[in-house]
Design brief:
The chain is α/β, with parallel strands linked by helices and about 625 residues long. The protein is built from 20 helices and 21 strands. The strands form 4 sheets. A 9-stranded mixed beta sheet has the order 13-21-20-14-15-19-16-18-17, with helices on both faces. Strands 3-2-1-4-5 form a 5-stranded mixed beta sheet. The longest helix has 29 residues, at about 270-300. The protein is globular.
Length: about 625
């Protein structure tokens, strides 16, 4: 039985295909269209899922949408009334599109399938679930656990902003919910907006900025903006916010509280923004920890699953792990709305149809999150020849690994395009840019010359699973780069007296550990453990680098530049490679050096530079 899950029409559209409960394929639409957080009907993602299994839409048993638009419309009507007359502009702006299009979501999907796939889908074939149930299902039903507490935190679904669940076998039961406008996700987004970053994409920048600041405004936030109860439930004072009426995130009362207007995008980031980032991060962590304690008491489960956009806050996740509230925690790698497509499909198969789940309490069903497109040798070579690329193909994988690990040990920056594309926002060794973590200059070089992004932003380490505890205060699997942990004290380089006096962004260029390129200013790192079972080639590369250098860690950042989606195809990877100052591109077994490509002057025998002994 094939089930197709779809998320669309808000942001980060995606499609997922499952077969008899097994996750077969999943991808975000943005990767195909090259439009970041593309919200359109995910025609390309759907086509990929079908092609991947060599099936067509007639073979699909059910199509499940991740959201309930009619219930969402009820929430919007409630907002009109609750915030009248402030909501008048919001009414004029939003009501027409709801009355003419969004309410008729099922017919819209039928029309989209007809236009894009030349097929008439029967209305009975299309179902939907609710937003937070989709998130909860994506976390629990893909997890290794038969029994688990499930915590979902995001901006807002239909009405719900925070939900607590208990998953048992093939059933999810909701324990508690918080409703709009009271949302920790929207509070975090409000600070994101106020500090000059884009809502729905800049929250991770705030998280990365937080360690440069001091928690100066925690009490102001808690005394004025949010009341947090002992069990983690909370309430916002909406007199400080305008997001409910669809105009701005914050208002004049908010700005007067903190003494200044919002920072304009692309202007200088000051200590005030750093302190605001640190303060909201601390508040978010407090909510996450208190809710975790509460759901532990309610479920008595040893396990916790997390999803929703706030579950991408890997610093908060790391604090939950460190608190030892649960024996095990598992975070859905596609925790945002894209993962709703997965949850919608899994919820139908397990909860609605009551099919049996088979779990072992150790291995999840995400297949490392390598669920996207992959390309054959013929595809790759045909493209490279069509653009006259200068490349060499290594048929022997050991030779390829030797060449790439040697280049990395010489502080070359590598574009690494291998196998299936990852599903979710993290690059996990399928579409990654790699570097040497021992290099003090690597973070600055990658940020400014490769990624073209803010210099304060940290990079994540990929580490051999069997070596993770040698470098980090962590000894659990973290395959999806969703846990932050401290660097081991033995790796830390003590700061001088003068360095200790530095403040904020001045801390950026200090060498803080033996792996400075992945050590954040607070001596932490967002860790990805690499496993031979899910990514043997990447594991081999790390092993080879370790043998050469004594370091089982690599810098791993997403294969894209600022403002663009992660690459998908060989063409995407080559174009990104040529636009940046990466030194080498490796697409499966094909290797290219930057300065030997067409339009570059140096046409020497580049194979000699990396010839094998």
């Amino acid at each position: 039985m094939y089930i197709l899950g779809i998320s669309a029409f808000y942001h980060d559209s995606a499609a997922t295909l499952i077969k008899d409960g097994e996750i077969i394929a999943a991808a975000q639409e943005e990767r195909f269209t090259r439009i970041k957080q593309d919200a359109s009907f995910p025609k390309n993602a759907i086509a990929f899922c079908l092609d991947n299994c060599n099936i067509n839409l007639d073979d699909i048993e059910k199509i499940v949408f991740y959201d309930d638009p009619k219930l969402k419309f009820k929430r919007i009507l409630t907002t009109y009334v609750d915030f009248f007359p402030k909501s008048i502009l919001f009414i004029f702006k939003s009501l027409p599109i709801w009355l003419t299009k969004k309410l008729y979501w099922k017919q819209n999907l039928i029309n989209d399938f007809k236009i894009n796939f030349k097929i008439n889908i029967d209305e009975s074939k299309i179902l939907n679930t609710t937003h937070h149930r989709s998130h909860a299902a994506s976390a629990f039903f893909a997890s290794p656990y038969e029994d688990s507490a499930v915590l979902v935190l995001d901006g807002v679904g239909e009405f719900e902003t925070t939900t607590l669940w208990h998953g048992k076998k093939n059933k999810l039961t909701q324990i508690k919910n918080l409703k709009f406008p009271h949302s920790i996700g929207l509070l975090y987004s409000a600070i994101t907006y106020y500090t000059g970053f884009k809502v729905n994409s800049g929250e991770y920048k705030v998280m990365g900025l937080a360690p440069y600041g001091e928690p100066k405004y925690v009490e102001t936030i808690k005394n004025s903006l949010i009341t947090i109860n002992e069990n983690g439930t909370f309430k916002l004072d909406m007199s400080y916010f305008d997001f409910a009426t669809g105009s701005k995130m914050t208002n004049d009362k908010f700005h007067k509280l903190f003494g200044q207007e919002p920072r304009e995008e692309e202007t200088e980031i000051g200590q005030f923004e750093m302190d605001m980032a640190r303060s909201i991060q601390d508040v978010a962590e407090e909510v996450m920890l208190k809710l975790s304690n509460y759901i532990k008491e309610e479920t008595k489960s040893d396990n916790l699953c997390l999803a929703g956009g706030v579950a991408l806050n890997c610093v908060g996740n790391g604090k939950i792990l460190k608190a030892n509230i649960f024996k095990h925690i598992w975070i859905q790698p596609a925790a945002g709305d894209a993962g709703g497509s997965l949850g919608a499909a899994l919820n139908y198969y397990f909860d609605i149809l009551e099919n049996k789940r088979i779990v072992d309490n150790k291995n999840d069903s995400m297949k490392g999150s390598y669920l996207g497109p992959e390309f054959s040798e013929q595809d790759i070579e045909s493209y490279l020849n069509s653009i006259d690329a200068d490349f060499i193909k290594y048929d022997n994988i050991n030779e390829l690994i030797e060449v790439v690990s040697t280049a990395l040990s010489e502080e070359k920056i590598i574009g690494w395009h291998q196998g299936k594309m990852e599903f979710g926002p993290r690059s996990l060794g399928g579409r990654s840019i790699l570097g040497d973590p021992r290099s003090q200059e690597m973070q600055k070089t990658m940020n400014l010359k490769i990624k073209y992004r803010e210099s304060f932003r940290p990079f994540a380490p990929s580490v051999l699973r069997e070596k993770v505890s040698d470098y980090f205060e962590l000894d659990v699997d973290s395959p999806y780069m969703l846990l932050v942990a401290p660097i081991n004290k033995s790796m830390i380089i003590k700061m001088s007296d003068n360095e200790e006096k530095l403040f904020g962004i001045e801390k950026l260029n200090i060498k803080r550990s033996t792996i400075p390129a992945v050590t954040h200013v607070d001596y932490s790192a967002r860790v990805q453990t690499v496993h031979s079972e899910t990514n043997p080639k990447y594991h081999m590369l790390l092993e080879s680098f370790y043998k050469k250098t004594g370091c089982p860690v690599l810098v791993n950042t997403s294969f894209n530049v600022r403002g663009e989606p992660i690459v998908c195809t060989p063409e995407d990877s080559y174009r990104c490679f040529m636009r940046t100052e990466m030194d080498m591109l490796v697409i499966n077994n094909y290797v290219m050096l930057k300065n030997k490509q067409p339009n570059y002057q140096d046409k020497g025998n580049w194979q000699e530079e990396f010839k094998l002994d």
